[in-house]
Amino acid sequence: MAGASPPAGLAPLVARLPKDVTGIFTTRWGGCSTGPYAELNLAAAVGDDPAAVGANRAAIASWLGVDGVHFGRQVHGATVHVVGADPPGAEVTPTCDALVTNRPGVALGVLVADCVPVLLADPVAGVVAAAHAGRRGLVAGVLARCVAAMAAYGSEPTAVVAAIGPAVGGCCYEVPADLQAQVAGWVPQSVSTTRWGTPSLDLPRTAVTVLRGLGVRQVHREAVCTAEDERFYSYRRSGVTGRFAGVVVRR
Ligand SMILES: [Zn+2]
């Protein structure tokens, strides 16, 4: 990494969630991956050394005080997987872009490098969720499906607190004008302009708008653009790179 000096140890951003829930957004620093994946890459399918990814995942689990973190095989879709009491790795990794659980001590994670990581917690019903909400997932309805899956465990949207993590901003997420218009037809607030004056989409703002439309009143957004902030992996900035994670667990 040119021009950046990693601090020692893990220093995740701590999400603003209810007090019996821990949510974090990891940075790229503090792990053992090297090269374009340096340092805390948590994704197994991006070409990094599997042993390094395993050690990095173990470090995050240790930091959180859990046995491991459940991750799905993400496909930019809207499928939600409900996680029970199985330890991470005990089941075949599900294909999904959101994970939900009502089990305390079960940590759920999503992997991102510009897409929007969304952590959800309902402290009343005792349900938490993590969603991978990129452009395609948002349009496919991943957040609506996620809130609906939480409702199956007695969650009311009005009781849900949402934390939106670091993602590419409208300042940098340039898209063709026709694609911008297509998404704007669904969520007008998605429309933005890059710093260099071309059509773009503001995916974090889109996620906020969608969540509010679903009845979620408390939505906190990290004001970080991954394409500009070198603490985070960015596919737009780097191409071949790692993935950081949003992780949530109820105590
Ligand atoms: Zn930006």
The assigned CATH architecture of the domain at 13-153 and 223-250 is 4-Layer Sandwich
The largest sheet is: 6 strands, mixed
Radius of gyration computed on alpha carbons: 17 Å
Distance between the termini: 36 Å
CATH superfamily of the domain at 13-153 and 223-250: CNF1/YfiH-like putative cysteine hydrolases
The CATH class of the domain at 13-153 and 223-250 turns out to be: Alpha Beta
Q: List all distinct small molecules, including ions and cofactors, that are bound in this structure.
A: zinc ion
Query: What's the count of strands?
Result: 13
Helix-strand topology string: EEHEEEEEEHHEHEEHEHE
Count of runs of 4 or more consecutive helical residues: 6
Helix content: 10-25%
The main sheet orders its strands as 4-5-8-7-9-12
* Low-pLDDT regions: 1-7
SS strand fraction: 15-25%
Query: Mean pLDDT score, rounded?
Result: 94
Q: What structural class should be given to the helix and strand makeup? A: alpha+beta
Overall geometry comes to: globular
CATH topology of the domain at 13-153 and 223-250: CNF1/YfiH-like putative cysteine hydrolases
Q: What can you tell me about this protein's structure?
A:
The protein is of the alpha+beta class and 251 residues long. The chain has a domain at 13-153 and 223-250: CNF1/YfiH-like putative cysteine hydrolases. 22% of the residues lie in helices and 23% in strands. The protein is built from 6 helices and 13 strands. A hairpin with a 6-residue loop joins β1 and β2. The longest helix is centred in the first third of the chain and has 15 residues, at 50-64. Residues 1-7 have low confidence and may be disordered. It binds zinc ion. The site of zinc ion has 6 residues, from loops.
